[in-house]
Amino acid sequence: MTGRRPPHRGPRGVTLLELTITLTLISLLALIVLQAFRIGSRSWEKGEQRAEVEQRIRVLSGILAQRLASIHAAMAKVDGKAVLAFQGRPDRIFFYSAPDGQGPLPQSAMVRGQAFFVRAGEGLVVQESYPLVEGEVFLESRGRLTVLEPRVTRITFRYLSPPPPGETAPRWVEAWDPRDASSESQASGGVQAQRPGAPGAAGSAAPLPEGRLPLAVGMTLTVQEERAEREIGLLLPIRVGRSL
């Protein structure tokens, strides 16, 4: 009896179900890889943006510290009385600084009045004026505006005042008016402004009873990031002996 040989079969093909499962797995893996790439890219962009903002803030704090360190004892007349031209508010600061020699002439060689504040839609700005050009020293700036940092949405100042009579620790105040500081300095014997070259300052100095400066300025910047706001605090000391 002769046996029958089984029919010959070729290579087994891929079924539609197996192909569907394979394509689905490949699609899921590709989606996971793409999502991971997007998350990494966004994290990198956020890190770059934050680093850029922090770099801008460091430059800005350096500018403010440099200008506060070169305060000029300009005197403004208010109601017929000469007062030190330094005006501090919770959302704005104004003072005069000595020539720095940087930038185009002749502005860089002149005493400069400057106010720092936030303007809606523009960010942190500085408003500069030049008393030698205007012919008068004002208590507030009224010159042209320059945008320093458009991402700053709010700025808050506070001022470190010398200890009042009977106390030993300085205190923080929200505003600084040279007219108020004048009467306080006369009563408490606090730090007073001195004219350069007058008897007693760096060899000769006669204190001026018209006003005084705070010991330091505290500043809080609110910076707009991609989806949230971040606050950055700065402390800027005022070195009276060096600046006046």
Topology:
Blueprint: H1 16-68, E1 75-78, E2 81-84, E3 86-89, E4 92-97, E5 112-119, E6 123-129, H2 131-134, E7 144-149, E8 152-161, E9 171-173, H3 178-188, E10 193-194, E11 207-208, E12 216-224, E13 229-237, H4 240-243
Antiparallel strand pairs: 1-2, 3-4, 4-5, 5-6, 6-7, 8-9, 8-12, 10-11, 12-13
Could you characterize the architecture of this molecule?
The protein is α+β, with helices and mostly antiparallel strands and 244 residues long. 30% of the residues lie in helices and 30% in strands. The protein has helices at 16-68, 131-134, 178-188, 240-243; strands spanning 75-78, 81-84, 86-89, 92-97, 112-119, 123-129, 144-149, 152-161, 171-173, 193-194, 207-208, 216-224, 229-237. The strands form 4 sheets. Strands 3-4-5-6-7 form a 5-stranded antiparallel sheet. Strands 9-8-12-13 form a 4-stranded antiparallel sheet, with helices on one face. It has a two-stranded antiparallel sheet with strand order 1-2. The model is unreliable at 183-210 and 240-244 (pLDDT under 50).
